[in-house]
């Protein structure tokens, strides 16, 4: 059943992206992520709390045991991932295989503390990447860690081992 639901979520994403309906993609992203990592209940319902058990944590979050002090955050903001998918449609490169590859490489959570989350929010890093991420002549160009580095949130390289 896992593969059935995983493929169903992938097809939902594909259809929405291909039809250029991007509004509900974050919901499909979360469902796809949970099915990919087996975060479902015995009734095949999404287990959002399971993210806290499997997602990489910031160094500060690793020291906290109280779940209420932690927040799950996409490694890349969904708006950035949606932008990449829009480019795939524009360049006529969207296929189920290409979509699966992008999602498996770039769609994952990190767990951070509420304080780190507040810092990201204050810097505008919840919904977008810093300008340097897009500037080819800048040190942070294309570096997915940029928004975390700017907020002084320390993640180890396990995040990139996907």
Explain briefly what this protein structure is.
The protein has seven helices and two strands. It is mainly alpha-helical and 162 residues long.
Report on the structure:
There is one protein chain. With 162 residues, the chain is mostly helical. Helices cover 44% and strands 6% of the residues. The chain has helices at 2-18, 25-36, 51-54, 78-90, 96-106, 114-122, 146-150; strands at residues 70-74, 109-113. Strands 1-2 form a two-stranded antiparallel sheet.
Q: How does the overall form come out from the CA principal axes?
A: flat
What is the CA-based Rg, rounded?
A: 16 Å
Low-confidence stretches: none
- The fraction of residues assigned to DSSP E strands is 5-15%
Describe the largest sheet: 2 strands, antiparallel
Q: Strand tally, please? A: 2
The helix-and-strand class reads mainly alpha
Query: What topology, given as strand order, has the largest sheet?
Result: 1-2
Query: What is the average per-residue confidence, as pLDDT, rounded to a whole number?
Result: 92
* DSSP helical segment count: 7
Order of helices and strands: HHHEHHEHH
* Helix share, percent: 40-55%
What is the CA-CA span between the terminal residues? 23 Å
């Amino acid at each position: 059943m896992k593969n059935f639901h995983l493929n169903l979520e992938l097809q939902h994403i594909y259809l929405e992206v291909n039809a250029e309906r991007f509004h509900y993609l974050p919901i499909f992203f979360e469902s796809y992520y949970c099915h990919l990592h087996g975060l479902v209940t015995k009734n095949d319902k999404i287990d959002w709390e399971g993210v806290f058990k499997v997602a990489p944590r910031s160094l500060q979050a690793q020291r906290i045991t109280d779940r209420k002090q932690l927040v799950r955050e996409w490694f890349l903001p969904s708006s950035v991932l949606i932008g990449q998918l829009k480019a795939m449609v524009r360049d006529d490169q969207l296929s189920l295989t290409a979509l699966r590859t992008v999602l498996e490489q770039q769609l994952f959570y990190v767990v951070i503390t509420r304080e780190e989350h507040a810092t990201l929010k204050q810097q505008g890093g919840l919904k977008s990447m810093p300008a340097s991420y897009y500037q080819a002549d800048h040190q942070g160009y294309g570096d997915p860690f940029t928004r975390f580095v700017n907020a002084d949130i320390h993640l180890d390289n396990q995040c990139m081992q996907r």
